[in-house]
């Protein structure tokens, strides 16, 4: 894994690492994440549910702990996480509305969620493509860092919206056997 991460660092400034085991089973692969984080600056989404979980993600070496609304237990846990570290990105999970276990988060408009989480200290958000325009409008008004999950083909249109970074799976083939 370290070798692959090293190759990625030759072409990319930062890596977004999504830990399927962390998000789906609350069992993040922290040892693998640490190997990757040692080679390239990493935004690591390890399935943070509770405030104290953010420390594990950061100890693994992540530059930013990504907390998704779909795994976050509550806004109180987001508040607690920010008391432990400000190196947090809030990922807004969306499927027919903002997703969350917490009714205070689920189904809200992005701007409403932004206003409440900004009071907590959130200043970096990553959203799916279908929330890009709504989030970009809020960014222009309130001035926070905004990333969008999108293909590289969609990048040009997003730059016009004032998006700060793009999270994509579209990277050229990397030979794993070298």
Can you describe what's shown?
With 178 residues, the protein is α/β, with parallel strands linked by helices. 39% of the residues lie in helices and 17% in strands. Strands 1-2-3-4-5-6-7 form a seven-stranded parallel beta sheet. The longest helix is centred in the middle third of the chain and has 11 residues, at 110-120. The protein starts with a helix and ends in an 11-residue tail after the last strand. 36% of the residues are buried.
The rounded distance between the terminal residues' Cα atoms is 12 Å
Number of strands: 7
Rg (CA only) = 16 Å
Give the overall pLDDT as a whole number.
91
Strand order of the largest sheet: 1-2-3-4-5-6-7
Shape: globular
CATH first level: which class? Answer: Alpha Beta
Structural class, by secondary structure, is: alpha/beta
What's the total helix number? 8
User: What is the name of the CATH architecture?
Assistant: Alpha-Beta Barrel
The percent of residues in helical segments reads: 25-40%
Percent of sequence in beta strands: 15-25%
How many structural domains?
A: 1
CATH topology: TIM Barrel
Largest sheet entry = 7 strands, parallel
Give the CATH H-level superfamily: Aldolase class I
The parts where pLDDT drops under 50 for at least 5 residues are 173-178
- The arrangement of helices and strands along the chain is HEHHEHEHEHEHEHE
């Amino acid at each position: 894994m370290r070798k692959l991460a090293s190759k990625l660092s030759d072409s990319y400034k930062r890596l977004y690492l999504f830990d399927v085991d962390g998000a789906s089973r609350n069992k993040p692969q922290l040892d693998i994440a640490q190997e990757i984080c040692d080679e390239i600056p990493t935004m690591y989404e390890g399935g943070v549910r509770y405030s104290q979980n953010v420390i594990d993600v950061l100890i693994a070496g992540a530059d930013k702990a990504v907390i998704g609304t779909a795994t976050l237990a509550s806004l109180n846990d987001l508040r607690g996480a920010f008391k432990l570290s400000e190196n947090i990105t809030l990922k807004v999970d969306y499927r027919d509305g903002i997703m969350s276990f917490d009714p205070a988060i689920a189904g809200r408009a992005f701007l409403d969620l932004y206003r409440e989480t900004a009071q907590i200290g959130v200043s970096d958000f990553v959203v799916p493509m279908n929330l890009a325009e709504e989030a970009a409008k809020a960014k222009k008004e309130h001035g926070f860092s905004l990333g969008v999950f999108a293909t590289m083909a969609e990048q040009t249109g997003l730059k016009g919206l004032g998006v700060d970074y793009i999270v994509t799976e579209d990277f050229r083939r990397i030979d794993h056997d070298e």
